[in-house]
Each structure stands twice: as C-alpha cells, then as structure tokens.
Write a structure and sequence with these properties.
The structure is a homodimer of 205-residue chains.
Chain A: H1 6-16, H2 23-35, H3 38-55, E1 57-58, E2 65-66, H4 72-77, E3 83-87, H5 90-99, E4 105-108, H6 127-135, E5 140-143, H7 149-161, E6 168-171, H8 187-195
Parallel strand pairs in A: 3-4, 3-5, 5-6
Antiparallel strand pairs in A: 1-2
Chain lengths: 205, 205
C-alpha cells in the first residue's frame, strides 16, 4: 500500500497489530477516525481506551478486573457467599455471569499450570485461593477450568492444596453439549458421558 | 454482557463504535490490550493513532493527506507534472498509486456534488482545482470519479468550470472488468461497452 503520509502509515500499523485486524481493515479504521471531528474522536474513542489501560486494577480478593480495590461481584456478594468458583481468566467470569446460574464469588487464577509454557503454580493466584478457602466462610470450591490436560493438572494440584480446608471440591459437569449431535461428539466425550450417565427425571425438563 | 469494570465497558463501547467491530470483537481487543505491558501498549498502539489524529494535515496544493504543508506526491512530481487526476477522496489516490500506471499529480475534491445529501460545489475543493488548472503548466485533467449519477454530475460541472483553462479533459475508460464474466456484467455496462467498443490490436496484449 502506498501512503502519502507517514503518520497515517504508522497509525495503520498500530491498528493492524491488534488481533483480527488486517492491513485493509486498519486503513479503514484510520480513515474513519480522520473523517470525524478531531476532538470528538480523541474524547470518545481514544480517551476511554487509554483510561482503561492506565486505571484498571485487579480485585484484591478474587483478582478479577476491577475499577477499585474490590470488584463489583466481591462487593455485592463477598460477605454472604458460601461458594468460590475458580476460573482461569476474567473472560470466564463474564461467561459464567452471563448464564445467570451462579451467585457466589470467583477466584481468577490467571492461567493454568503448564510446564511446557513455563507456567508453574507460583505464577498463578493459588496461595490467595488457599488462604480464602481456609479463612472465610466457604463450604464449596467449584473448579470451572477447561478440561484440557493442563486444566486437569491444575484441578488436581488445587484439590491437593485445598485438602485441609474443609471445603467440598466440585467441577463443572462434563458430557455432550446441549443441541449437539451425537455423531459429531468426540469419542472421549461420548465414551465418558456413557460411563458417567445420570438418572433421567421428568422434572428437569 | 456483564462487565465487572466500568472502565472495561467504556473501552469496549469505544472500540465497538468503530466500523466493522462488534461487541465481541471489541471485548477481545480490549482484553488483548490489558494482557500486554501497559507502557508498551500506550506507546506502540495508542500513541501513533493519537499522533495521526492530532498532527495529520491536508496538502495545500492537492488536499491529499499529508505530514507537512505539501504531500509527498506534490513534492516529488509537482514541478514537472503535466496531468492532474481529480478524485473524490484520499482513498482513491492510494488506489490509483497502487496501479503504478500514473505519474502525475492529484486533486482531492473531498466528495461529489450531491444535492440530496446537501453537498453543493462550494463544499468541495473545486475553486483550487480551477486555479491550478489555469495557472500551472498542466495540459490534461483526468476525471477519476465514480460513474454514479452524482459522479457524472460532478464531472459535467467540473468540465464546464474548466472550459476556459486550455486543458484536455478526460475520464477513466468504462467497460467490462478484466476477469469479469459477461453474463454477470450489468446491462448498462455491457450495452455501453458494445457501443464504445475499441479496435483490437495484438500489441496491447
């Protein structure tokens, strides 16, 4: 692409470094910004993004994204919750909140144990989880971690660390997806879902 | 979507106001920025974009985007060019430069005459075009304007304004696209391309 302006070219490069944005989309975005009123773009597009990058914090209890010292969920439910849901990242907190099926608090690990990627238990928010599970009035810790090899390893490690904490440890139910077709389910999932089949009851429907 | 942080929500709103970016992509972009080093993101992503918005100028000769008073094209070709190519926007300058088939200068109108959208000749960079065509050493003005009703109107208006300027006025060739299939060409284009057929010569291939 031949740019008549270096400023434009550098802005296009900045945009196209973002995930899912190629050179053509980046150019479109840059030209879109140039078509608007300068002050309007600075205050309504760039300022909120810069403010987020500069000011966002992590909740001191659960390590979720937060505007202040404690995140909204800990503020609202922290004093009465009896369950902790352990997740890999703040994206998972949002996904579970979307379901409207959980009213406890969360604990964001910041990843899973993965020796191949150089991530050991010390790199994750595990000590604070053990501390919370021991000190506070929690009765259950729910492992909402992806069922990958690294995820399973992490669940195993966490359950050993939480052994003396007097809490029930549970994990997300595994099986075939709702709306999924049996013939497309992978063998492992299908095989495990036959072994761990559940009693059928009409009231569930 | 349930955000635990207002800062995040506002940044997502800012991203999703850009063309072609929905809420999900916007969230992905915001979380991507949060995963990086704070200073790195500010200097390599936000700064070039802000710099472009604040500092970019329009070329004083051709109204193209420019870093300084004159754009690179006018600086390099301005003194010896004998052709002006009239285009709607700076995007069109880039498209024509990509073809590598033109070595004259440009004149960016900033749009086309469109009474329905409230765009009259006074809103476009037409006076400066007439001035340039009259004063400088130009022999040809090429109308590289989209063949829409508004575009045709603009070409007609410009050709009347340039009548006394002693320049040849030409327009982009119209016809069926290279690589296009005849059966999918629209009737008007196909009909006109029969009427305005050109002599076949082997040397063109």
């Amino acid at each position: 692409m031949s740019y008549s302006s270096q400023l434009l070219e550098q802005a296009v490069d900045a945009f196209s470094g973002l995930p899912g944005i190629g050179k053509k989309s980046a150019l479109r975005l840059a030209l879109h910004l140039l078509k608007q009123d300068k002050d309007q773009v600075l205050s309504s597009v760039l300022k909120p993004i810069e403010k987020m990058i500069r000011e966002i914090k992590f909740c001191s209890s659960c390590h979720n994204l937060s505007d202040g010292d404690q995140c909204v969920i800990c503020q609202q439910r922290g004093h009465k919750a009896d369950k902790i849901c352990v997740v890999e990242s703040f994206r998972d907190v949002m996904a579970i909140e979307e379901t409207d099926q959980y009213n406890g608090v969360y604990h964001v690990l910041g990843g899973v144990i993965s020796p191949l990627d150089g991530i050991s238990p010390e790199d994750l928010n595990i000590d604070t989880l053990v501390e919370r599970a021991g000190l506070e009035h929690f009765t259950e810790v729910i492992m909402a971690i992806s069922p990958t090899i690294e995820g399973e390893t992490t669940i195993y490690y966490l359950s050993k660390r939480l052994k003396n904490c007097n809490v029930t440890i549970s994990q997300l139910a595994r099986g075939i997806s709702f709306g999924g077709e049996l013939e497309y389910a992978d063998e492992l999932t299908l095989g495990r879902s036959i072994i761990t089949r559940t009693p059928y009851s009409i009231s569930e429907i």
